Amino acid sequence: MSRLILDTVERTIGTYAVTFLGLVLADGFDLTSVSALKAAAIAAIPAALSVVKAAVGSLVGDQSTVGWVPRQRS
Length: 74
Hints:
Blueprint: H1 3-27, H2 34-57
């Protein structure tokens, strides 16, 4: 698998996990409630935006990652 795809997958999973856990913790950490399912659905929005950001990042910045910051020349 391409390094860019792995980088995108890692960033997307990380974004989803952080957003979901933040929403669940803010709501009281009841994973059996309907609001936990809503949090899971809502967390997919920033994760999807992370994929869009990675797609743009593959065109700008350092071409070996999906980051937007260019690699510094040494």
